[in-house]
């Protein structure tokens, strides 16, 4: 994956998780699609306007390796809060929501 060519894709997109209990895959939405979401309603893969990723049977999209972020000038920030901590997350134009810190294993060794 040539992340430098795709960094605008990641900068202007929002990750959402399918709420189908047998799926729970993460999908990348455009900021325009994310703004149209009803944040009080569940979101499912079939709601994705990107037909390449709008079914639960389709694999998750690739997430760049940490080194690819660094090569593109992004900085990874690691939390000093312990796993299981509950925090309130807030993004511009989005309502706040609670999040638990959890260990998420991505491709490769961590």
From TrEMBL:
<protein>
    <submittedName>
        <fullName>Zinc finger CW-type PWWP domain protein 2-like</fullName>
    </submittedName>
</protein>
<feature type="domain" description="CW-type">
    <location>
        <begin position="9"/>
        <end position="64"/>
    </location>
</feature>
<dbReference type="GO" id="GO:0008270">
    <property type="term" value="F:zinc ion binding"/>
</dbReference>
<dbReference type="InterPro" id="IPR042778">
    <property type="entry name" value="ZCWPW1/ZCWPW2"/>
</dbReference>
<keyword id="KW-0479">Metal-binding</keyword>
<dbReference type="Pfam" id="PF07496">
    <property type="entry name" value="zf-CW"/>
</dbReference>
<keyword id="KW-0863">Zinc-finger</keyword>
<dbReference type="InterPro" id="IPR011124">
    <property type="entry name" value="Znf_CW"/>
</dbReference>
<keyword id="KW-0862">Zinc</keyword>
<dbReference type="GO" id="GO:0005634">
    <property type="term" value="C:nucleus"/>
</dbReference>
